[in-house]
Design a protein that fits this description.
The complex is a heterodimer of chains A (400) and B (167). Chain A is α/β, with parallel strands linked by helices and 400 residues long. Chain A is extended, with a radius of gyration of 30 Å. Chain A has helices at 25-44, 69-75, 81-96, 101-120, 125-146, 155-165, 175-189, 266-289, 303-311, 322-332, 380-389; strands at residues 4-6, 12-14, 21-24, 54-57, 63-66, 148-149, 191-193, 196-198, 204-209, 218-220, 237-246, 294-297, 315-317, 336-337, 349-358, 373-378, 394-399. A two-stranded antiparallel ribbon of chain B has the order 1-4. Chain B has a two-stranded antiparallel ribbon with strand order 2-3. Chain B is globular and about 55 Å long. The chains are: A alpha/beta (400), B mainly alpha (167). At the A-B interface, β3, α1, β5, α3 and α4 of A face α1, β1, α2, α3 and β4 of B. β3 of chain A pairs antiparallel with β5 of chain B, so a sheet runs across the interface.
Chain lengths: 400, 167
């Protein structure tokens, strides 16, 4: 057994724990190569614009139909360690360049298949590996040589690149439209560092909304919050917005334990309520004082506070997502404040326009429930300014 | 359907960003791979020895991309590959790839099948790395699953080592 060895006197010594499985030499190589090739074979048929699709059903019964290599490998549960490495290849490819995942996995599988043939001819793996390394290096040189430099203002070429990448996706005639949006979006987020351009695709958020056609996909230069204005009396549109970003609640804190307050006198009752009201009012006044006219709160806002905010004409949104808060902070230049007492006018962010808009208006009744209002912090001008010092944010509505 | 659109959008955004970051493009449709394979075959002869075989194997592996493209389009892959190889021998042949819609070898640059260079580079690089990594493993030692072990404390997880030679 693999985990046993013997001393000279023949006494067995336990080296590895019982139950440990071990495979070595050619057997180990063969197993690994086979496992990796199974993965490559699985997605091989999806390569190219005329590749086939895969239907994946997850443990909850949700169905995905796609021919995106990364999506397929992401969805399937892989057990074998060598097969997992193939999944890693796809993930790396997706993280680094975002396309060509199937190509890389198919290529890795094929390289292993050829290597197996060489192993059968008794060529040592080290020789194969060094040959492969040399070949990869040479391939880079060839690629560098045949690569054509493109002018970044050449929109037609950029469009062709985008359309080629969508070749296998079932987006039909909307391809052109989506390609143009992609170019505009990347132009928005690209920033020049030294003599190099850097474009982080994570700065573009794709928001999906059902109810309209892909042709209605639009690019919003700004940040979208999938939330409503808390109070109907508040403005729906604020220009030159000064935005306060809070992550503490605008509520009167309740005591930790259950306490009872006995009030015997009506005036006491009134004093108690007044005290609560004035606490909320103080908070609102503080916001008003620093000059904010928009409030985005990560926590809740009390009904009474909403009322005061509405009276002051401040647009407020509550329970914004933490990730959205961070985006807002980057896009508007504001700072997220944890304690309302600390709020200063320097903490406020700026946007040219904050607006509540309904997206995907009751086009189909079954989807009406999903419709929410959205805000838009926008203006190309302001954004261009931000992208030089901060990271420009731009989001996209992807409807279908 | 919406998810597929999102993936399409993601791909489109990524490739445009790739072009911005490394502003070089190549022609798609297996043309680049065929060209790389051709050059690698020439290179292999220069290197010679056993490594030559490995480099030739690499060239053949790279050629699987146009081959698979043809296969997936329902084309006769042998015919296409012969046509592709001979097309690449000619001047300006590096633009010739598999036109899967017409079912023949054609100049894909003119047809607007263009991809960022970095996508191709990364694909070859990461595939070669993964293959090398898997090939260098000659011993797999996997710890047993900890399911029905009683009383014992947690043991180390699965480890892979290529040493500890005991015969």
């Amino acid at each position: 057994m693999a985990y046993l060895a013997q001393t000279q006197s023949g006494q067995p010594i336990l080296i590895l724990k019982e139950g440990t499985s071990r495979s070595r030499g050619r057997e180990a190589q063969r197993n690994n190569i086979m496992a990796a090739r199974v993965i490559a074979e699985a997605i091989r048929s999806t390569l190219g614009p005329r590749g086939m699709d895969k239907m994946l059903v997850d443990s909850l019964g949700d169905i995905t139909i796609t021919n995106d290599g990364a999506a397929i490998l992401d969805e399937i549960d892989v057990e074998h360690p060598a097969a997992k490495m193939m999944v890693e290849v796809a993930k790396t490819q997706d993280d680094m360049v975002g396309d060509g995942t199937t190509t890389s996995v198919v290529l890795a599988g094929e390289l292993l298949k050829k290597a197996e043939e060489l192993l059968d001819q008794n060529i040592h793996p080290t020789i194969i590996v060094s040959g492969y390394r040399k070949a990869a290096k040479k391939a880079m040189e060839v690629l560098e040589k045949i690569g054509v430099t493109v002018d970044l203002d050449d929109k037609e070429t950029l469009k062709k690149v985008a359309i080629t990448s969508m070749g296998s996706k079932a987006v039909g005639t909307a391809r052109e439209h989506l390609a143009e949006i992609a170019i505009d979006a990347v132009k928005q987020i690209a920033e020049k560092r030294g003599d190099r351009w850097v474009a982080d695709v994570d700065n573009v958020q794709i928001i999906k909304k059902e109810g309209k056609s892909l042709h209605d996909t639009e690019l919003v230069r700004g940040v979208i919050l999938d939330k409503e204005v808390v109070h109907s009396g508040m403005p729906k549109r604020v220009e030159n917005a000064k935005i306060a970003l809070l992550n503490c609640p605008l509520e009167v804190e309740k005591t930790e334990f259950s306490a009872e307050i006995r009030i015997r006198d009506p005036s006491q009752m009134k004093a108690f309520l007044d005290q609560e009201t004035s606490m909320l009012k103080e908070m609102v006044e503080k916001i008003k004082k620093v000059g904010a006219n928009v409030l985005i709160c990560q926590k809740g806002i009390d009904d009474m506070a909403q009322h005061f905010l509405a009276k002051e004409g401040i647009l407020a949104v509550r329970r914004a997502k933490e990730s959205d808060m961070e985006k807002l902070s980057r896009a508007t230049g504001g700072r997220i404040v944890t304690n309302i007492e600390d709020l200063k006018s320097e903490d406020l962010g700026f946007a040219e326009l904050v607006e509540e808009r309904k997206i995907g208006d009751g086009w189909s009744s079954s989807k009406a429930a999903k419709i929410r209002s959205q805000y838009r912090f926008s203006s190309a001008l302001a954004l261009r300014e931000w992208s030089t010092k901060l990271k420009g944010q731009c989001m996209m509505l992807c409807r279908s | 359907m919406v998810d597929e659109a999102e993936r399409a959008m993601h791909d489109a955004l990524s490739v445009v960003a790739d072009v911005f970051e490394k502003n070089k493009i190549v022609v798609g449709g297996g043309a680049v791979e065929a060209e790389v394979a051709k050059e690698l075959r020439k290179y292999a002869v220069q290197v010679g020895g056993r490594e030559q075989l490995a480099i030739e194997a690499f060239a053949e592996a790279v050629e699987t991309i146009p081959k698979t493209l043809a296969e997936n389009a329902g084309l006769e892959q042998i015919d296409i590959m012969v046509e592709l190889r001979s097309a690449h021998e000619k001047a300006d042949g590096h633009l010739m790839g598999v036109d899967v819609f017409e079912g023949k070898v054609a100049n894909l640059w003119d047809k607007g099948v263009i991809e960022p260079l970095s996508v191709k580079e990364q694909a070859i690089k990461s595939a070669a790395e993964a293959a090398a990594m898997i090939l260098r493993i000659d011993d797999v030692i996997a710890a047993s699953k900890p399911e029905e072990e009683k009383g014992k404390g947690p043991e180390g997880g699965g480890e892979e080592e290529s040493e500890s030679e005991f015969d």
